[in-house]
Amino acid sequence: MRIRIDRTKCEGIGICGFFAPTVFELDDRGTLALLAEDVPGGLISEIEQAVEGCPTQAISIGDDER
Ligand code: SF4
């Protein structure tokens, strides 16, 4: 399952990094780095919490459509 960030919506608040720090990381300027493009094994629950916790609905997960 792929993780997608809509960078037009992300405001660098960092709630995602609170729930899943090994996947979402903010730098000093509040720019979000996505450390994994696919949901890592065993972390689906944390990623779902990040999706639900993001106040701007910037995160989505879904099957790869490539
Ligand atoms: S919680 Fe949402 S708005 Fe905040 S850094 Fe993560 S993706 Fe961006």
Question: Can you tell me about this structure?
Answer:
The protein contains two helices and four strands, in the order E-H-E-E-H-E. The chain is α+β, with helices and mostly antiparallel strands. It has one domain: Alpha-Beta Plaits, CATH 3.30.70. The strands form two sheets. It has a two-stranded antiparallel ribbon with strand order 1-4. Strands 2-3 form a two-stranded antiparallel sheet. The longest helix is centred in the C-terminal third of the chain and has 10 residues. It is globular. The mean pLDDT is 94. Iron/sulfur cluster binds next to helix 1.
CATH-derived architecture: 2-Layer Sandwich
> What fraction of the residues are assigned to beta strands by DSSP?
15-25%
Instruction: Just give the CATH class.
Output: Alpha Beta
Seen as an oligomer or otherwise, the chain set is: single chain
- How many DSSP E strands? 4
Question: N-to-C SSE series?
Answer: EHEEHE
Bound molecules: iron/sulfur cluster
How much helix is in the residues? 10-25%
Weakly predicted, low-confidence segments: none
Sheet having the most strands: 2 strands, antiparallel
Strand order in the sheet with the most strands: 1-4
Mean pLDDT: 94
| Helix/strand/pairing category | alpha+beta
CATH topology: Alpha-Beta Plaits
> What number of structural domains do the residues give?
1
Count of DSSP H/I helices: 2
Distance, first to last CA: 12 Å
The best one-word shape is globular
